[in-house]
Amino acid sequence: MAKRPIGARRRPRIVHTVPALRKALADLRKRRETVALVPTMGALHQGHLALVRLAQRRADRVVVSIFVNPTQFAPHEDLKTYPRTFATDVAALAALKADLVFAPAVETMYPEGFSTRIVPEGAAKAGLEDAFRPHFFAGVATVVAKLLIQCAPDIAVFGEKDFQQLKVVTRLARDLDLATRIVAGAIVREADGLALSSRNRYLKPDERAKALTLYRVLVRSAEKIAAGADGASIAAVLDDGRAAIAAAGFAVDYLEARNAETLAPLAAAGERPIRLLVAARIGGTRLIDNVGV
User: Fold this and answer.
1) Would residue 135 show up in a list of annotated catalytic residues for this protein?
2) Suppose 218 and one of 9, 24, 37, 291 were both cysteines; which one would form an S-S bond, judging by CB atoms 3.0 to 4.6 Å apart?
3) pTM of this structure
4) Which of 45, 48, 76, 135 is catalytic?
């Protein structure tokens, strides 16, 4: 949709509190324009910016939240070292002419005495990310629910790279009767196929080269399954894929074929659509990826 100018502003309006957010949103909605939300944890890369562009195509105004959510990190995970590049992020959003950045403090999102959280089930209990990060989806669901309530956007855009998260958030909005429609953004990849991720910056050069194994295994496995693999033969395809990933130097958390809508294990021969999902660690970096079949 074509944007209308909002004065001479050269960068997005930045707000840090919920009252300021709601006032800014009221200003954006004065002309009955639609609003999209793109939730992020900052450290923006071209994958995030593709989500912003998608939001701009679907709505008149775009809000980007930047908040490193502590409740989705376990004590042993990288909360303290997670990259924070706020000035660079705002500059990138200014280049795209995003309208508003919501950058709350932890105390704003979780004030003293905060004692409510959302504990999702369904896709959040699929035995994928939740098996290795059991705290994760309660943290995600709680912060996303707060953002959707605070912003009340017409749509919210989430990337398919975090496919299980996308399914959890989609069900959350539906189950809580939120008016926001969840829109999926396709995975953005490097020219060689590596899925863009804020954590790719942690890869050493040799690890970066080996990281391509994940996508190659996913594509090769998807091709075999699409060609007619069923039941036991799908299991064999996945076993071969896990072996190839391990041979490249990864510690494999999972490589699974799941129902693409529910993320439940495949229940019948010929069941479609299928999503292949992988998570593996190389060096100190954990990578995830997925492809459809």
Assistant:
1) no
2) 291
3) 0.93
4) 48
Three-state DSSP class for 292? Answer: strand
How are strands ordered across the β-sheet holding 251-259? 251-259, 274-282, 285-292
- pLDDT tens digits, one per residue of 23-67: 999 998 988 999 999 999 999 999 999 999 999 999 999 999 999
- Helix (H/G/I), strand (E/B), else coil: 151: helix
Go through the domains of the chain in sequence order and give each one's CATH number.
13-185 (3.40.50.620), 198-292 (3.30.1300.10)
In order along the chain (293 residues), what is the average pLDDT of each group of 10 residues?
Answer: 49 96 94 96 97 98 98 88 94 98 98 97 98 96 98 98 98 98 98 95 96 98 88 90 98 98 90 96 96 97
Q: How far apart are CA 25 and CA 19, in angstroms?
A: 10
Tokens of 14: 């930045």
- Report the alpha-carbon distance of residue 61 to residue 158 in Å, rounded: 16
Copy the structure tokens of residue 212. Answer: 């391509």
Cβ contacts of 201 within 8 Å, gap of 6 or more: 83
Residue range 3-30, pLDDT digits in tens: 544 444 568 999 999 999 999 999 989 8
